[in-house]
Amino acid sequence: MGLRKELDQKDPLAIGQELHQFAAQLYPICRSITGNGIRQTLAMIQKRIPLQTFEVPTGTAVFDWTVPKEWNIRDAYIKGPGGKKVVDFQDSNLHILNYSAPVRATMPLSALRPHLFTIPEKPDWIPYRTSYYVEDWGFCLSHNQMLALEDGEYQVVIDSTLEDGHLTYGEYFLPGRSTDEILISCHACHPSLANDNLSGLTVATSLAQLLSGNDLRYSYRFLFLPGTIGAITWLALNRETAGWVRHGLVLTCIGDKGQFHYKKSRQGSAEIDRVAAHLLRHTCESSEILEFSPSGYDERQYCSPGFNLPVGCLMRSVWGTFPEYHTSADNLSFIQPKQLAESLGLCAAILDVLEENQRYQNLNPYCEPQLGRRNLYRSTRGVALEAQINARLWVLNLSDGEHTLLDIAERSGHPFSVIHEAAQTLRESGLLSIASENRGPQEKTAHSASAESCGRSSRSR
Ligand SMILES: [Zn+2]
């Protein structure tokens, strides 16, 4: 498909700056798991890709959960004994405990204190706190701000509403030649936090733009959801569709300067796990593969035992391990154009491999074909001669209709791109044909086997 090549022809700095500018537009919005903040965010993504939005009513049962009340906020502040605002939502939407119930009250500092959250170790930063499933109210402020509060009466105003409404999510479906799907999922429920939320949103949007207009082997489904409850809601309402997911990626925290981390799916050796590990090994100076664990982002839901979808999670710095995580320091200067562009490039490379990872059949399987006679015993397209010849021999030897190009890349030690190029050259020379396209019955068997595990029998598109 060549998404990576398409990107490489453009100026990486310009791509990065475009991603960063989009993050800057989304940054001021006060998002939450429901409400107008996420609607506004999806509307801005809709200007770039034809995203469909869905509204799920409060009270809808979704597996063991219930779609909560819709939260909206207009203003919030604390006025000190002198009548001056000492904490103001208009300065930063992180100042409010996200999902705070409405409050209008006057109280002494001692009564207010249990509702104030700070980070003593980082006295200038505002923490990000939520109270989604227990009705509460509160303010988050820098520790220094709190230390400056004097004894006296405080006026507390939270002009919010918490009432029956909807949970909103966005979905963009791109049909491919196959009904098999690749799922790209990111959460869109954090307020002004850049790496945790906006980096994934912006890279996913650009990836969708990059894919559109291409001849696609797989169908693609992009989900922009509120974390946890959004993924649970989508899975509950799309149980059949979930059965078509062959590969998936959760994108989060991919704009900071940390090295790449890929967290494997619950399956552990799914094709997406192998592709991500292969590319990180061959294209990054340093990176780390993490085993699956039931904590993290929405891979937890996709990889719950009832679904067990092959969905991994791509990150740079791992959530919870960097000091800026869930604080006001996860801002627009914490994410950088260069890193955002690199992350988009890696995602593009992952999709390229998934699209091109097929089985081939050696059409001359009785002993080696004479490569010299076909001009295949010399270098083409710039790859070193020895590596190129060696890659061709590997492809010829393992193309028995059983091994995929990724199998061959892993066994030979060559990067996938070199093996793929060798396969293309051999195919052009008439020595190889695509085998997997003729594997209809087996593929159908594989479909119905995984379909059963998701409660789905058949589907036609
Ligand atoms: Zn988070």
Describe the structure.
- The chain is an alpha/beta fold.
- It contains 15 helices and 19 strands.
- It is 34% helix and 22% strand.
- A hairpin with a 2-residue loop joins β2 (61-62) and β3 (65-66).
- The chain starts with a helix and ends in an 8-residue tail after the last helix.
- The structure holds zinc ion (ZN).
- Zinc ion is lined by residues 190, 196, 326.
Largest sheet: 8 strands, mixed
Uncertain residue segments: 438-461
The rough form would be described as elongated
Distance between the termini: 22 Å
How big is the Rg? 25 Å
- How helix-rich are the residues, as a percent range? 25-40%
Proportion in β-strands: 15-25%
Mean pLDDT comes to: 93
Please state how the strands of the largest beta sheet are arranged side by side: 1-10-12-11-13-16-14-15
**What is bound: which ligands?**
zinc ion
Number of strands: 19
Compact summary:
The protein is of the alpha/beta class.
